[in-house]
Design brief:
Number of helices: 4
Distance between the termini: 29 Å
Radius of gyration: 20 Å
Number of strands: 9
Helix content: 10-25%
Order of helices and strands: EEHEHHEEHEEEE
């Protein structure tokens, strides 16, 4: 695509729960790789759409935010979870977190996430509604687990003395506590992230998010939609194909 406008290049360093990631946003993205008929992965015909400057800036800011929030949710639901409040009779042998709670949920111990609304609000503003439901319930349409074998990770409990109502699945919590390298087996490396964005309309963009998996470069293609004009959302969790 020929354009007299120079490439938009933004470099931002962001902190993701103590993990730093450099995010590079490029306006001109090697369109020959994505345009229909070029042998690439393009399937849309509206490659000529160019938003006004204010909307362009909004799109790039939204893409950066959604990638950061997606990574935060990977940590919360898959690789790290949240610290928990130990139940009575904790020991260093068979009960590192104490007696398993009767309802199967440990209380979390977090200054940032104290209720199920805190967690689910983050999910809801990151993904379109259908995907948000899948993330929160860890279910594919087939009923199989979406991202792990631990089932639904977070749920509401009765408020404790500190007013915390957020609980975390005991199997997930114990797996993380007993294996501090639990996240080391996660194949996707989030320390070097880049994305390429093509606006398709004033309400939809195509994203190509470049990461590495098992040490090899990988590109995740996603859609970013201004859902009902209520804010930008991703169509799917950036986790696996």
């Amino acid at each position: 695509m020929n354009s007299s406008k120079p490439a938009f290049i933004a470099t931002v360093v962001v902190a993701l729960l103590a993990v730093a990631a450099a995010v590079f946003a490029f306006w001109n993205i090697a369109r020959e790789e994505m345009e229909p008929g070029s042998g690439g992965n393009g399937s849309d015909s509206n490659w000529s759409y160019r938003p006004p400057q204010e909307l362009e800036d909004e799109m790039f800011a939204a893409a950066e935010r959604l990638i950061m929030e997606n990574h935060l949710l990977i940590r919360l639901y898959i690789t790290h979870g949240l610290p928990v409040i130990k139940e009575p009779y904790a020991n260093t042998t068979d009960r590192p977190l104490g007696n398993p709670p009767e309802d199967g949920l440990f209380y979390v111990d977090s200054a940032d996430f104290k209720t199920i609304a805190d967690i689910e609000g983050l999910v809801n503003r990151t993904f379109i509604p259908e995907e948000a439901v899948r993330v929160k319930n860890n279910l594919l349409d087939s009923g199989e687990p979406y991202y792990s074998d631990h089932g639904r990770i977070f749920a509401e409990k009765r408020a404790n003395s500190d007013g915390i109502t957020l609980g975390i699945n005991e199997h997930f919590a114990l797996a993380l506590y007993l294996n501090p390298d639990f996240s080391a087996d996660y194949p996707i490396d989030w320390t070097d992230v880049s994305f390429e964005l093509v606006p398709l309309s004033a309400f939809e963009c195509q994203l190509r998010i470049r990461l590495s998996a098992d040490g090899e470069p990988v590109v995740f293609e996603r859609r970013m939609t201004n859902y009902n004009n209520e804010g930008w959302r991703l169509d799917r969790l950036v986790h696996g194909e």
